[in-house]
Amino acid sequence: MSVSLALAAQHAPIAGLSPALWSQPAAPELQLAGTVLRSEADRALYVEGDEARCFYKVVSGVVRTCRYLSDGRRQIDGFYQPGDVFGIEAGPAHCLTAESVTDCTVIAYCRRSLETMMRDDNRLSQWFFSHAMTCMARVREHSLLWRHGRAAQKVAAFLLEMAERGESDPAVDLPMGRQDIADYLGLTVETVCRTLSHMAKEGMITLPSSRRVVLQDRATLRELNS
Amino acid sequence: MSVSLALAAQHAPIAGLSPALWSQPAAPELQLAGTVLRSEADRALYVEGDEARCFYKVVSGVVRTCRYLSDGRRQIDGFYQPGDVFGIEAGPAHCLTAESVTDCTVIAYCRRSLETMMRDDNRLSQWFFSHAMTCMARVREHSLLWRHGRAAQKVAAFLLEMAERGESDPAVDLPMGRQDIADYLGLTVETVCRTLSHMAKEGMITLPSSRRVVLQDRATLRELNS
DNA sequence: CGAATACTTGATGAGACTCAAGCGCCGTGG
DNA sequence: CCACGGCGCTTGAGTCTCATCAAGTATTCG
Question: Are both A121 and A158 inside the same structural domain?
Answer without folding.
Answer: no
